Amino acid sequence: MLKVIMYTTGTCPYCQAARQLLKTKGITFTEIDVHSVERRVEMVNRSGRRTVPQIFFGNWHVGGYDDLAQLDAEGAIMEMLNPRFAS
């Protein structure tokens, strides 16, 4: 399974929803808090976006919570975590 990384803040409701969705699916993830300037710059450089959450499956940028929820609605989260889809 690909490593899941999520850039977040502690107070973001979309971050909380993404956390819950991943936990419900039994998916472990690494959370990176972007309160520090360095981490926020890292997130923007990596995703091209300034909002949280920003979610990555391996090197693939899933996007934010809405994108993750769409993958879930399509039943594709577990399939996309398969290393054969890594780019």
Automatic annotation (TrEMBL):
GO terms for molecular function: electron transfer activity; glutathione disulfide oxidoreductase activity. The keyword Ribosomal protein does not apply. Residues 4-62 form the Glutaredoxin domain. One of its GO terms (biological process) is cell redox homeostasis. It comes from the Bacteria. SUPFAM superfamilies: Thioredoxin-like. Has a glutathione-disulfide oxidoreductase activity in the presence of NADPH and glutathione reductase. Reduces low molecular weight disulfides and proteins. Belongs to the glutaredoxin family. This is Glutaredoxin.
